Every structure is written in C-alpha cells, then in structure tokens.
Input
Amino acid sequence: MTHVHEELLALAARLVVEEGLDYRGAKQRAVKSLGLGARTPLPDNEALDDAVREYLAVFCADTQPQELAALRRLALQWMQRMAAFRPHLTGAVWQGTATRLSDVMIQLYCDDPKSAEIALIDAGVPFEARNADGPRGEPVPALSVHARCADWHESVGVHFIVLDRDDLRTAPRADAKGRPLRGDVAAVQALLEA
Output
C-alpha cells in the first residue's frame, strides 16, 4: 500500500467518524482535500471499513459504544413500529461503526411500495419521500423521518429503504469477510443484549 493510499484511507475514515459522511462521500472529499487528481484510485469499502474501525478503537473507544447502543435502541423502536414490512437494520448502526452523527438505515420489504408511506401517514409521522440507491444500484423509494433519540434529546435521521418483498430472499447476506449485511428485529435485540 502506498503512502498516498494510506493517507487517503486515514482521512476518509476520519471524515466518516467525525463528520458522519457516507463512504463514497468521504473518499471523494478526501481525494479533494489531499489535492489528488480525479483519476486517483479510491480504496474499496472493505479497506475503508477497516480504517473506520481502527479510528474508532483509537480515538472513540470511550464514547462510541454508548452512542452505538443508543442508535440501535432507536432503530429497534422503529423496526417494531414498522414490523409489518419485515424491517432489517443495515448500514453503520448494524455494522457497529456508527457514532452519534450517523443516521439509522432500515430496509423494508413490501408487497406494495406505497404501503409503508401509508403506514407513516396513518401514524401521523411526518416524512420526506425521495429515491435512494437500491441493492443493485437502481433507484428505490426511501422515506426519511426525524426521530428523537431519548439518550441525547436530539433528532436523528431514520431512513427507510423500501424494497420489493422478493428482494428479501435474493439480497446478499454477508460481506466479503462473512459479516451479515443486515439484521432483523431479533438480531438487533441480540446485539443490544450482548
């Protein structure tokens, strides 16, 4: 690994942890901040994930576990509210790299994509509808709410990625290191109890 590649990884990891950027945004901003060319090869997400975990262990070991637990409790509350749509937690909160700057990402598996929207409307929950990247890079509906985190008395973004029910069976189950990419309500409860 070259010195530039190591520097790029270290800066991107810091941006993920300290500014709450997603991996793609952190890598792009690190390239720009370091004055590297647009054709600079970017590190893969696995390498960045390892760098983020290392950064958390070195600089955030005293705060991050409590922040992660608070976000997982918040995610569990919303997963239970949206139980009819087979919710699965994903992203940094599931993977264990989240801090208080992270948003909660929950995949919903619906027979009708509008049904999750209707459920939020019926519950009186204000949300913003938009599109997000789906599992195969295609745009899929996403519903974003601002939820109060009881531990911090602050608002946290909770994003529901609305997928087709059949995607639950066909989506990849693990990353290259064999770690699950998502977890259902029971899996999140197990993480909180561990």
About this structure: Strands lie at 88-90, 104-110, 128-133, 139-149, 154-164. The two ends are 36 Å apart (CA to CA). The mean pLDDT is 92.
